[in-house]
Write a structure and sequence with these properties.
By secondary structure, the protein is of the alpha+beta class. The protein is built from 13 helices and 16 strands. It has a 14-stranded antiparallel beta barrel. A two-stranded antiparallel sheet has the order 8-9.
């Protein structure tokens, strides 16, 4: 995709592209790539990521080597051969920022510390660099924006006497994804890369995913002059065929005079697959399988009651273990599961609360109304947004009053989402609180949402 991954990064490779993207991951993951550049130049990349309660940790190793080539002295006499290589180790962390922003639904941040060692013949140099990243979901559905500052802080890498710092680099990008009624999922991305020591460049990519299994990609980069900038790729998710969440990817880039560039990657995700509701039917079995790798919901211990089992998971388990436990409770159903899930709504992690609200929606039980209304008092704006979504299906006077109260929330995004949801409440006098809010609302985006909802409700003629 032309290297346009600043806003796309949502895998272990985000360690390199944008560390903030690690926070989008749903399970532990490892990835390996072999990249054959122009003749004699190759790269190996290994990355991994693991979730914790407060965020996501990542690790990467990048090794670039140049095969031995002839060396000459000042008189142009051959003196033998030399080789070169570069080794960088990446340590990353990503987490979410509180939602108190006018123009973004959610924002995550990340940082990567790089330890770098380079060699040229018998000389070696070492140093470090610090990368910073942001990733934000915009008010436009499926539109995400990203920013990466590479080598925001760095040291000189010195050979013999002279040294140089890794270049300070700014990367900005956006990505947009949409699904047609019958066609594939299509995602486009666009990056602009600016250096402090050279001319910047554009990169763009397009990906189509068919049946959530096969991917076809194309990209363009204006970075170098050795090729026309085009590249192409294919990917396949093997979980449908072998029961393991393994992805194989291949990319190809032609050059004018140096042969073709080939890259092969393999990625393995641990634990249950979460991408589509269809896979949730097997969530419990996948969680048990993942337990052997310490990433799923741990098995029930001898003499341990179900209540103690789930209490232990939500007190000490990882993010993945807790999410797998929610999937188990959702699949089991029944009053006990409902009681456990209502208790989980008190969790402070917006991801856990979101999963729980989605699980409770399957129970269709009015007992969840008051606990979800209680979430609207959370200091975390993400949780308030999730609560509004969960309450939308319950056409109850308590919910109407709660949603009307959200029209006075301090965060414009929450007010706008409450107004949009109330537009679906035709026949419940939802227009009255909307008209009242319109008189005092100062945010233009929220005002437009209120007006659209009033139109859906018949402009108050309910």
């Amino acid at each position: 995709m032309g290297g346009a991954f600043t806003a796309v990064a949502n895998s272990a490779d985000a360690v390199y592209y944008n560390p903030a993207g690690l926070y989008l991951m749903q399970s532990p993951e490892v990835s390996f790539s072999q990249n054959r550049f122009v003749e004699g130049v190759s790269q190996q990349w290994l990355a991994g990521a693991y979730p914790y309660k407060s965020g996501m940790a990542g690790l990467g190793v990048n090794y670039l080597s140049v095969a031995a080539f002839d060396a000459y002295d000042d008189a142009d006499n051959r003196t033998g051969s030399v080789s070169a290589d570069n080794l960088a180790v990446y340590f990353s962390w990503a987490a979410a920022l509180p939602l108190e922003y006018k123009n973004f639904k959610a924002v995550s941040y990340g940082a990567t510390l790089k330890l770098i060692t380079e060699s040229l013949d018998t000389e070696r140099g070492s140093g470090y660099g610090l990368d910073l990243g942001l990733l934000a979901d915009t008010p436009v559905e499926n539109l995400r924006a990203g920013l990466t500052i590479q080598n925001a802080v760095s040291s000189k890498i010195t050979f013999i006497e002279k040294g140089a710092r890794p270049p300070l680099t700014f990367k900005t990008g956006v990505t947009y994804a949409f699904r047609s009624a019958v066609g594939p999922v299509v995602r486009g991305s666009l990056d602009y890369v600016a250096w402090t020591d050279r001319r910047g460049y554009l990169a763009a990519g397009l990906e189509s995913v068919f049946d959530e299994v096969f991917s076809v990609r194309a990209g363009y980069s204006s970075f170098a002059d050795i090729s026309n900038g085009l590249n192409f790729g294919l990917g396949i998710l093997l979980s449908k065929y072998i029961g393991r969440n393994i992805t194989l990817d291949y990319s190809f880039s032609p050059t004018y005079s140096f042969g073709d560039v080939h890259k092969v990657s393999v990625t393995y995700k641990f634990g249950a697959q979460r991408q589509t509701p269809a896979s949730l039917a097997a969530a419990r079995a996948a969680a048990k399988e993942a337990a052997d790798l310490d990433v799923g919901a741990s098995p029930l211990a001898p003499q341990q009651t179900p209540s103690e089992h789930y209490l232990a998971i939500f007190n000490t388990g990882t993010l993945v273990q807790r999410r797998n436990a929610i999937a188990e409770l959702r699949e089991k159903g029944g009053d006990d599961s409902l009681t456990y899930l209502i208790g989980i709504l008190k969790d402070s992690n917006p991801i856990i609360v979101r999963d729980t609200v989605m699980a409770l929606a399957q129970f269709n039980d009015d007992r969840v109304i008051d606990p979800q209304i209680g979430l609207l008092k959370s200091e975390n704006g993400n949780i308030r947004l999730v609560a509004i979504s969960g309450l939308n299906k319950y056409k109850d006077p308590r919910v109407l009053a709660a949603l009307a109260g959200c029209l006075e929330d301090k965060v414009p995004m929450v007010r706008g989402w409450a107004a949009e949801v109330l537009g679906n409440w035709r026949g419940f006098n939802a227009a009255a609180p909307l008209r009242a809010a319109l008189k005092t609302e100062k945010d233009d985006t929220v005002r437009r949402t209120i007006i659209e909802s009033l139109k859906k409700l018949g402009a108050g003629r309910e």
